[in-house]
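Q: I'm writing up a methods section and want to include an example of the input and output format. Could you take the sequence below and give the corresponding predicted structure tokens, formatted cleanly so I can copy it straight into the document?
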Amino acid sequence: MLFIIAGLFTAMPAAGEGNIVLSRDYQPTGVSELPQVLNVGIPLECGRYEIRIMGQPIITKASLGMVADLDLYYLIIRVGLTNIGEQTIGWLTPDSFEIRETYHGRVYGTYKMDPIISAKIAAGFKLPAFYTQIEPGGSIQTTLVFSVYYGAESWILTFAPHVFGDEAAKTIEFQIPQGLMQ
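A: Here is the clean output for your methods example:
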């Protein structure tokens, strides 16, 4: 459902889903210093993981008939995850990944990863889903998909590896390379 109120809107997600909520009281948060851009292929350590961007991120139009007027897009990021620890890593939860859009040094939107679309797109590329267990020294490549609004100056990806039954031990943030519009 979508409610238009004096030029501001609130997107009401289905039960159990969280997505975009803007209201009259919304204030963008400042970013004191933007994190580094993680270029394609460069690994970044986060606890028992190493994460890397595996290719140019893609921004493509979402085809959702009931909300087509909202100009929703999918931001698709292909990542590599490596277990640099000594134990098998259990399933990552969807809360492990979040993307924030920035304009003029301020964060204007925060978006959770869409776990269903991420898993479906990964399967379409014959890649494992983000929640695949990783043996010590093992790696996977997968896709992360976020429903976003197009046009951000930059995107900041937060990786806070939550494993079912555990809390995130460490969190890292980095800018992703500029998305290629399709």
